[in-house]
Amino acid sequence: MAERQREVARRHGQEAQLRIAAMAFETHLGMFVTDAEGRILRTNATFRQITGYAAEEIVGHSPRILNSGRHDDHFYQRMWCAIGDKGSWQGEIWNRRRSGEIYPQWLTISAVKDDEGRITNYVATLSDITERKAAEEEIHQLAFYDPLTGLPNRRLLVDRLESALKESRRSGEYGAVMFIDLDNFKTINDSLGHHRGDELLLIIAERLTAITRETDTIARLGGDEFVVMLHDLGLEADEAAMVAERVGEKLLASLVEPCMLGEMRCQVSGSIGITLFTDDQATVNDILQQADLAMYQAKAAGRHALCFFDPAMQARVMERASLEADLRQALADGLLRLFYQVQVDEEGQTTGVEALLRWEHPERGLVSPGVFIPVAEENGLIVPMGLWVLETACRQLAAWAALPATEHLTMAVNVSRDQFRAPDFVPRLERILAVTGARPERLKLELTETLFLEDSEDTRDKMQRLKGLGIGFALDDFGTGYSSLAYLKRLPLDQLKIDQSFVRDLLDDPTDATIVTTIITLARSLELEVIAEGVESEEHRRWLAEQGCRAFQGYLFGRPVSVEELPLTARQLPVADLEAPRP
Fold first, then answer.
1. pLDDT at 419
2. Percent of the chain with pLDDT strictly greater than 90
3. Is 365 helix (H, G, I), strand (E, B) or coil?
4. Where in the numbering of this chain does the PAC domain appear (predicted)?
């Protein structure tokens, strides 16, 4: 009885194990079992679902029926060596479904041995990883490629450039990086819309790809900026430069070809900066910066051009960056000063001054406005700097108005285009007048012609509002720009200022003399005042007076000086007690 009970229990245990094994076999993983010779004995439902093979179609066959053909014999040799040595193998493999579709799967193969260590079966599990591979590919695409053009992005470019730099150091062959920027892309993008701009970028990407070799790299860094990386350009710098220049010229020619964006025929051009690299100590960032600097040099040369980087260019840029940093600090530390140059009437009496910004650098000395003003205009400092000038000038103007002997003096202040175009320029100036107590009718703003070339209606509206406060306007450097009669007629100007470049040589150059005479006559016909700057001799003054000019400014009457150093006719003028706060 006891023996019979043990037999029943053993049989029940075996049946339970078989049921567990059967349940495990029908898992979410595909499974198949082969004999020792590799013939398939059994498959589960998931295997049949993944591969598309019914049991009767595959039982008795070798798993080689699933091979995709993507792997060579060496791959399978390594697989079976691992199974022989370790008893199992797992890894990614590409197989073929019954439909012929090739797909990726994760495969595990284990050898089953009997008590004597002989292989009796092989058990394999597999899973379809198509979706996972697609997700990985999408992540890789987003990480390393531009979503619009499909070109490599900055990250992939840096990776490839690092590899190319290492290879160049090993082989000694030169490579080149070209930084490409489209010259008038913003105009097209703003006027036709971003979708047309995207179409144009796709066209440009195709053109760049068509010209370069498959082994070269074309990347889009963003916006309308592209980079082309060439390698294996030869062992000599001159030879490499010639090859890079030829490729650059082809790229420029392809960029300028017209294209159709919808119904619109459009044309763009490009500026290209080129730098060579080889076995020197330059880093990837250095190389990209050099190409970028060369590109800006190409733009400065007139656009639709290419330019090679040279160390002197970098030295100039570093000097400019240093100057910009010092200028920011000077603005914060109050190292900027206002100088004043007197303006006189036909009798030589001082009628007012022009406020001129000066920068006394602790190491550089007095920095020329021709040096630091363009820097301020490029980096945006010109706006806060201009506001400081206006407030400081208005405080001085209010101080002069305190005495009857000086209340008649006017103050001319240059206002930059960016400053005047700021949406809050008018209310800011109104607040400055209110805070300082300056009389607006004694303030004269000097504007240049470039301001009237863009959005003239906004400019006219602001001028009219300020004119209503009593502020006057002078057109500075007249004759050096477009000098359109249209805006002279439409804008509420009070004075034309003859540029010193015409005044300086008018006694020797008939052309300059004719231009000055014409300006004076034009001003008289438009009922505008006219003032000549750059008057350096009595001969200049006398000639101008004979032509009808009644106001003068120049070294003949005084150089630009601090308020304490103004010439005798204005020496008794009071100095403002309060200095304008720094922006």
1. 93
2. 48
3. strand
4. 89-141
Residue 226: strand, helix, or coil: strand
Token pair for 55: 């049991």
The pair of structure tokens assigned to 533 is: 């700057």
Helices (H), 177-278: 185-192, 194-211, 237-255
pLDDT at 10: 57
Q: Which burial class, exposed, middle or buried, applies to 271 when counting CB atoms under 10 A from its CB (0-12, 13-18, 19+)?
A: buried
Cβ-contact 255, 225 below 8 angstroms = no
Across all residues in the chain, what is the average pLDDT?
86
3-state secondary structure of 65: helix
DSSP state for residue 450 in the 8-state scheme: G
Residue 488: what pLDDT?
A: 78
Torsion of CA 393, 398, 400, 405, to 10 degrees: 140
Q: Of 233, 222, 248, whose CA–CA distance to 304 is shortest?
A: 248
Alpha carbons 250 and 461: distance in angstroms, whole number: 48
Q: What type of residue is 477? A: D
CA angle, 442 as apex, 439 and 444 as ends, to 5°? 120
pLDDT at 579: 47
Do residues 298 and 307 lie in contact, with contact meaning Cβ atoms separated by under 8 Å?
yes
Query: Any long-range contacts for 212-216 (C-beta under 8 Å, 24+ apart)?
Result: 212/247
Residue 432: predicted pLDDT: 96
Contact yes or no for 341/353 (Cβ under 8 A): yes
Q: To 5 degrees, how large is the angle CA 310–CA 314–CA 318?
A: 170
Q: Determine the angle formed by the axes of helices 369-379 and 311-333, rounding to 10 degrees.
A: 90
Residue 488 CB contacts under 8 Å (≥ 6 apart), including other chains: 475, 522, 526, 528
What single-letter DSSP state applies at residue 37? Answer: T
Q: Give me the sign of the Cα torsion angle 231, 237, 243, 249.
A: positive
Mean pLDDT over residues 85-98, rounded?
Answer: 92
Q: What angle do CA 18, 21, 24 make, to 5 degrees?
A: 150
The SS3 call for residue 377 is helix
